[in-house]
C-alpha cells in the first residue's frame, strides 16, 4: 500500500491531538433526535428503573471522558444496568434504534476510549459489582464488571490468594480486560491477556456470549479459536464485558523491595536486562529517570538521590529471596548505589508510594498544565537504546517528560506535561510522541504496551500491524457488530 495513503490521517491526527487537549467542552446538543430519545429513555426506564437512567449534563460529562487529555465527548444517555439480563435488554433497544453503545468502568483509561464521539448510550457498569464465584482450591474467581482490582484483593484478604495485575489506578477488572492492562507485576505474573480464563460478553444485538463456554474455567484449552483473547484488548468495540473469570495466585511467603540509584540511564537499563537474563524470578522492576525521581521526591517529601533509579521487588520463600537478593550484585557492577531495602508491608508501601504517585508528581512539576502519557514497548535487548535515545530527544527539544516504566517487560512511559493553550508546545509534544512510537516500531516493538489504542493511536496501529491485519480486524468487527454500534470511532 502506498505511504501516501497514510499522510492525510497523520495530518488529521495532529488536528485531533490539538483539539483533544480541552477536557470539558461547552454543552452540546444530543446526537439522538428528540423523538427517538424520549422513546428510548422510556424503554430504558422500563428495564432499569428511573434511577437507572440519566440525562443530566453532569452525569453525561462524567461518563464522556477518562484520565487522558482527550476532550470530553458526553453520551446522550447514561444507563446503569444491574445484571447481564438488563445489559442484554438495553443493548437490544440500542440495536433496534441504531444507537452507539459505549461501555464504561471507572474511567481510568488513558487513550480516550470512553468518549461518545458519535453520541449514543453509555453503559456504566458500576452497579454490577459482585464477586460471584470463588474457587480457592482452583485459584480462580468470577467477577462482575463493577468489581475493581482493590475491591477484589480486599475480598480475598483472608483466603491467602490475590490478583496481582496492577496498572496503578484502581481500575475495574473488566475494564482492565477490555484494554489488556498490565502494570508493575507483569514481569512475573503476566498481563490481563494471560490471566483471563473466560468472559461473558453481551454483543451489539443483545446476544450473550461465553467466550470459553458457559461456566468453563480450565487453566488451559486447545478447543477452537481463542475467543477470550479476541475480546481482551478490544476496548469495548466488540461487546460489553459482563463477567470475567480470572486466575488467582498464592500470596508470597515473603516480599522484599529495594531502591537503587545509577550513574546513568544506560547503567540502570543495562542492569534490568542483565538481572532478567540471569533468570532471577523478580516480581517487579521499575525504572524512574532523574526528572521523575526528583518530581516524586518533591511530591511525597522523599529524599532519594536525584538519579536514574530502579525499584525492585522479590517474591518467594525466605531462602529463595536470599538467593535473589544476592544476584542483584549485578546492579553494583553497573554502578548501582544507595540501596534502600524494605520487607514489612508498611515499609514496602512507603517505598512504592513514589512509583505509584508518578503521574501526580509529574503534573505537580507544572501546576495548571495537563499530562499526556506515552506508552511503548520493545524487546528487552532494545530497551537500553530506545530509553537513552528518548531521553536525548526530550533534552534536545526542551520538553518536560519524566520517564517511568515497567522495564522488566520492555514497557515504559514518558509523562508529557504541557500547556494546552500553547499551540507551539502542543505541536512539539505531538511530534515527539510520533517519533517515540516510530522509534519503538523500528525496533520491532509496539506503539502501546498497555494503554490501548483508543482515539489517539489508530494511525500508529495501522503502521504497526499493516493493512492486511487491519482488514482482518475490520472483518471481525463487521461480523460481530455489523451496524458499527460498539464504541464506534475507536481502535479501527
**Structural class by SSE content:** alpha+beta
Number of strands: 19
Q: What's the pLDDT, averaged over the residues?
A: 90
Q: With helices defined by DSSP (H or I, 4 residues minimum), what is the helix count? A: 18
Could you list the spans in which at least 5 consecutive residues all have pLDDT below 50?
A: 1-27
- End-to-end Cα distance: 17 Å
> Which outline best applies?
globular
Largest sheet: 8 strands, antiparallel
**What radius of gyration results from the CA coordinates?**
23 Å
What is the helix content?
25-40%
What portion of residues belong to β-strands?
A: 15-25%
Protein model, in words:
It is a single chain. By secondary structure, the chain is an alpha+beta fold. Helices cover 39% and strands 18% of the residues. It is built from 18 helices and 19 strands. The chain has helices at 4-19, 34-48, 57-62, 84-97, 149-155, 173-178, 186-189, 192-195, 227-231, 265-277, 290-300, 318-327, 329-333, 345-356, 358-363, 383-396, 423-442, 458-480; strands spanning 53-54, 77-79, 101-104, 121-124, 131-135, 140-143, 161-162, 196-202, 208-210, 240-247, 249-250, 254-261, 282-288, 309-316, 337-342, 370-373, 376-377, 403-406, 411-418. The strands form 4 sheets. Strands 12, 13, 14, 15, 16, 17, 18 and 19 form an 8-stranded antiparallel β-sheet that branches. The chain has a 5-stranded antiparallel β-sheet with strand order 5-6-10-8-9.
How would the blueprint of this fold be written?
Elements: H1 4-19, H2 34-48, E1 53-54, H3 57-62, E2 77-79, H4 84-97, E3 101-104, E4 121-124, E5 131-135, E6 140-143, H5 149-155, E7 161-162, H6 173-178, H7 186-189, H8 192-195, E8 196-202, E9 208-210, H9 227-231, E10 240-247, E11 249-250, E12 254-261, H10 265-277, E13 282-288, H11 290-300, E14 309-316, H12 318-327, H13 329-333, E15 337-342, H14 345-356, H15 358-363, E16 370-373, E17 376-377, H16 383-396, E18 403-406, E19 411-418, H17 423-442, H18 458-480
Helix pairs in contact: 2-4, 10-16, 16-17
